[in-house]
């Protein structure tokens, strides 16, 4: 058996997978995010350890026979988070998360330096790791002076499990310290952001075995201490492993807390000005590009909390098929935006509210606004030369037929829903463990899923969504002028 652990923003999920790739069982544990100030987003790394203990305990009791035969563990996790440790390996402060925008000024300064886009292949976004450390140096100098090593969130879990200080290429690519095309740390970028090379972990590929469980951890988990741990991957790269997206033209749309539109790439072809991310894939000699929006299902969660109703209740008001755009337009910039605007300060809005607008229309508008933002990502990807004939939909939002039909009509390409099963980051992490420990060919381990249903653009509706999308694209600048 192999175990995939997915360290998400709101919880940790563990997925037991057989050597043949069949999902046997799963368990999950939740934790919270802290928002000390507007634009800040933090998490206590100890909550990840506690969640891991909880998940392992649940798996051990529910799937005792399969659990005992775990041979390898792979880990995926949310990107960009700054987890800072001192010389003794102690956490210095709460992890600054991917959706934290406090370092917008520092990001802009680094981005203005030609080396950063040229070597990293990306805009320096406020959520990336490098500007966060620059912010710490200015605003928390005592904490910054104690920094011995900076780890990404999943890598802190790997460190706790194995004692090894490493990161994989896909996660390192989101720091602004990596030369993404060369797959190596940049002495230039680390120095220009005020860091030292020895403050960064060793670089490995996602399938590389980095070590085995520490004896104390193996004993606590009732596992053999020869259980191997592979480096794993950033959540989106792991999700690509989960649905078998490696070749040019393969991709997915993820409707999670954030929204992602990802395209696999056979070569390194950055276009930073488009605000598209160009990152290393989780496997050697592969890359991927993606557009990212900061509030996808998070926008629905906000609406749910504001109206005092369950998200599922709101979504279930809508029919299974799209029927044309709502009269109300929603701009989903609740936490700023990445692709294509790179704007940490912009905030969301409803346009066209009237007395006739009820919770159903608001829910439809939120789904459509997020979908229009994903269309922005698709257009940005197209500007780099990327072509996607179709997409596989994953994430919590993919449970909504209305949303998937809206996506197909708005993006203008077929959207595939996988047959019932697990095809996200946890499966991808398990697949990386299988490939790393067994050394089986990637083509055999990371197969694409069986498709349950395909949503095709409706020639009668697609022009209507395109017309509304054009209004949406003009709304950003109008909103900016009012703020």
TrEMBL record:
<keyword id="KW-0418">Kinase</keyword>
<dbReference type="InterPro" id="IPR050406">
    <property type="entry name" value="FGGY_Carb_Kinase"/>
</dbReference>
<dbReference type="Pfam" id="PF00370">
    <property type="entry name" value="FGGY_N"/>
</dbReference>
<feature type="binding site">
    <location>
        <begin position="79"/>
        <end position="80"/>
    </location>
    <ligand>
        <name>substrate</name>
    </ligand>
</feature>
<feature type="domain" description="Carbohydrate kinase FGGY C-terminal">
    <location>
        <begin position="252"/>
        <end position="434"/>
    </location>
</feature>
<feature type="domain" description="Carbohydrate kinase FGGY N-terminal">
    <location>
        <begin position="1"/>
        <end position="242"/>
    </location>
</feature>
<keyword id="KW-0547">Nucleotide-binding</keyword>
<dbReference type="GO" id="GO:0004856">
    <property type="term" value="F:D-xylulokinase activity"/>
</dbReference>
<dbReference type="InterPro" id="IPR006000">
    <property type="entry name" value="Xylulokinase"/>
</dbReference>
<dbReference type="InterPro" id="IPR000577">
    <property type="entry name" value="Carb_kinase_FGGY"/>
</dbReference>
<feature type="active site" description="Proton acceptor">
    <location>
        <position position="235"/>
    </location>
</feature>
<keyword id="KW-0808">Transferase</keyword>
<feature type="site" description="Important for activity">
    <location>
        <position position="6"/>
    </location>
</feature>
<keyword id="KW-0859">Xylose metabolism</keyword>
<dbReference type="InterPro" id="IPR018483">
    <property type="entry name" value="Carb_kinase_FGGY_CS"/>
</dbReference>
<protein>
    <recommendedName>
        <fullName>Xylulose kinase</fullName>
        <ecNumber>2.7.1.17</ecNumber>
    </recommendedName>
</protein>
<dbReference type="InterPro" id="IPR043129">
    <property type="entry name" value="ATPase_NBD"/>
</dbReference>
<dbReference type="GO" id="GO:0005998">
    <property type="term" value="P:xylulose catabolic process"/>
</dbReference>
<comment type="function">
    <text>Catalyzes the phosphorylation of D-xylulose to D-xylulose 5-phosphate.</text>
</comment>
<keyword id="KW-0067">ATP-binding</keyword>
<dbReference type="InterPro" id="IPR018484">
    <property type="entry name" value="FGGY_N"/>
</dbReference>
<dbReference type="InterPro" id="IPR018485">
    <property type="entry name" value="FGGY_C"/>
</dbReference>
<dbReference type="GO" id="GO:0042732">
    <property type="term" value="P:D-xylose metabolic process"/>
</dbReference>
<comment type="similarity">
    <text>Belongs to the FGGY kinase family.</text>
</comment>
<dbReference type="GO" id="GO:0005524">
    <property type="term" value="F:ATP binding"/>
</dbReference>
<keyword id="KW-0119">Carbohydrate metabolism</keyword>
<dbReference type="Pfam" id="PF02782">
    <property type="entry name" value="FGGY_C"/>
</dbReference>
């Amino acid at each position: 058996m192999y175990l995939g652990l997915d360290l998400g923003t709101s919880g940790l999920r563990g997925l037991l997978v057989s050597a043949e790739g069949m999902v046997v069982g799963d368990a999950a544990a939740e934790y919270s995010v802290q928002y000390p100030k507007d634009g800040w987003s933090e998490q206590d790394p100890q909550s990840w350890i506690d969640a891991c203990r909880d998940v392992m305990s649940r798996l051990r009791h529910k799937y005792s026979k399969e659990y005992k035969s775990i041979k390898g563990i792979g880990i995926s996790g949310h990107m960009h988070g700054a987890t800072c440790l001192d010389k003794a390996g102690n956490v210095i402060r709460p992890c600054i998360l991917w959706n934290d925008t406090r370092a917008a000024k520092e990001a802009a300064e680094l981005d203005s330096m030609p080396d950063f886009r040229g070597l990293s292949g990306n805009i320096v976004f406020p959520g990336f790791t490098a500007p966060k450390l620059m912010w710490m140096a200015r605003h928390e100098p005592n904490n910054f002076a104690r920094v011995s090593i900076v780890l990404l969130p999943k890598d802190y879990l790997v460190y706790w499990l194995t004692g090894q200080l490493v990161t994989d290429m896909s996660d390192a690519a989101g720091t602004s310290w990596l030369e993404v095309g060369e797959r190596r740390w940049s002495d230039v970028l680390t120095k220009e952001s005020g860091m030292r090379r020895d403050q960064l972990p060793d670089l490995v590929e996602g399938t590389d075995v980095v070590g085995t469980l520490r004896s104390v951890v193996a004993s606590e988990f009732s596992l053999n201490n020869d259980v191997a741990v592979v480096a794993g991957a950033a959540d989106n790269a792991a999700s690509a492993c989960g649905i078998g997206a490696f070749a040019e033209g393969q991709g997915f749309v993820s409707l999670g807390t954030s929204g992602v539109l990802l395209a696999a790439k056979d070569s390194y072809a950055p276009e930073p000005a488009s605000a598209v991310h160009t990152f290393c894939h989780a496997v050697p000699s592969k890359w991927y590009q993606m557009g990212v929006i900061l509030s996808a299902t998070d926008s629905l969660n906000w609406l749910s909390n504001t109206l005092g109703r369950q998200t599922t209740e709101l979504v279930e008001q809508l029919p299974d098929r799209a029927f044309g755009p709502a009269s109300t337009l929603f701009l989903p910039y609740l936490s700023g935006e990445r692709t294509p605007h790179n704007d940490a300060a912009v905030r969301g809005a409803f346009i066209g509210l009237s007395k006739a607008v009820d919770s159903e229309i608001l829910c439809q508008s939120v789904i459509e606004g997020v979908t229009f933002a994903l269309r922005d990502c698709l257009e940005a990807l197209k500007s780099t030369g990327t072509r996607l004939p179709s997409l596989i939909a994953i994430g919590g939002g993919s449970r909504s037929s209305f949303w998937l039909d809206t996506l197909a009509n708005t993006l203008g390409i077929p959207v595939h829903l996988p047959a019932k099963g697990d095809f996200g980051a946890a499966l991808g992490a398990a697949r990386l463990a299988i490939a790393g420990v067994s050394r089986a060919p990637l083509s055999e381990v990371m197969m694409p899923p069986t498709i349950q249903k395909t949503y095709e653009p409706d020639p009668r509706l697609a022009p209507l969504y395109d017309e509304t999308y054009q209004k949406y694209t003009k709304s950003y600048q109008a909103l900016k002028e009012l703020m």
